[in-house]
Amino acid sequence: MKIKEVLNIVASMLNDEDKVSWTENMLLNYFNLALREMFNVRPDLFNHSIEYVCQEGYRQIAPSDNLHFFKVFSNVNGRICKYMPLATLNNINPKWTTNKPDEEVEIFTYDFDNPKFFYVYPPAVNGLKLNVEYSQVDKWYLDTEEDFPLPDNWVATVMDYMCYRAYQRDTEFSPNDTRIQSHLNAFQQSLQNKAQADITNIENRTATWLGDKGQ
């Protein structure tokens, strides 16, 4: 589905097919705002994977476009990296930052108060490559011919937020008050329901895997 199709459906929902009361540019702004609002609640929907090249040492600079750092999945050579809270690592090995740089990372961690960096143990040699996963909203969309950036089951959620913002613009008209709240509630409920459904799906798959392993 193209972004333009989403905008056209929303215009129809607003009884403004010709985009007179709400121009295409306004609707596109609401579309972009919807993605950012969703990111605040479900950053996992905007995951990206990259091959990250380390500088020498324990402190690494997070990707420049990083909005929500997730994890170091593995060394590119294959070894999985484990997360350990920074306080725990400090307690176990107070001098871990002084270790000799290694060609393999075993542990990654980060300071929630300083998201511009993440930390690896043992310290990395210069040029070591890691598979890093993080979350970001790609960009502010301007071209309506681009594809909808999320799975199609999120289209209705985006539309509800767009309608909420559109009706909010006309708050002087009391009949819209109910519509504003209705679309906002639908948007919030959709995020909560889908989040719970995703958690349940993961739990079911884990239970199935554990059952298979026990056979």
What would you note in describing this structure?
The chain is α+β, with helices and mostly antiparallel strands. The chain has 2 domains: 3-44 and 140-214, no CATH class; 45-135, no CATH class. The protein contains 5 helices and 7 strands. Strands 2-6-5-4 form a 4-stranded mixed sheet, with no helix packed on it. The chain has a 3-stranded antiparallel sheet with strand order 1-7-3, with no helix packed on it. Strand 4, helix 3 (86-92) and strand 5 form a beta-alpha-beta unit. Helix 1 packs across helix 2, helix 1 packs across helix 4 and helix 2 (24-41) crosses helix 4 (155-169). The longest helix is centred in the last third of the chain and has 39 residues, at 176-214. The model is unreliable at 199-215 (pLDDT under 50).
Compute the separation of the termini in Å: 43 Å
Low-pLDDT runs of 5+ residues are 199-215
Give the class from helix and strand content and strand pairing.
alpha+beta
Name the beta content range.
15-25%
How many domains, in number, for the residues? 2
What characteristic shape results from the CA principal axes? elongated
What is the number of strand segments? 7
**What percent of the residues sit in helical stretches (DSSP H or I)?**
40-55%
Indicate the mean pLDDT.
86
Strand order of the largest sheet: 2-6-5-4
Order of helices and strands: HHEEEEHEEEHH
Q: What characterizes the major β-sheet?
A: 4 strands, mixed
Q: Count of helical segments? A: 5
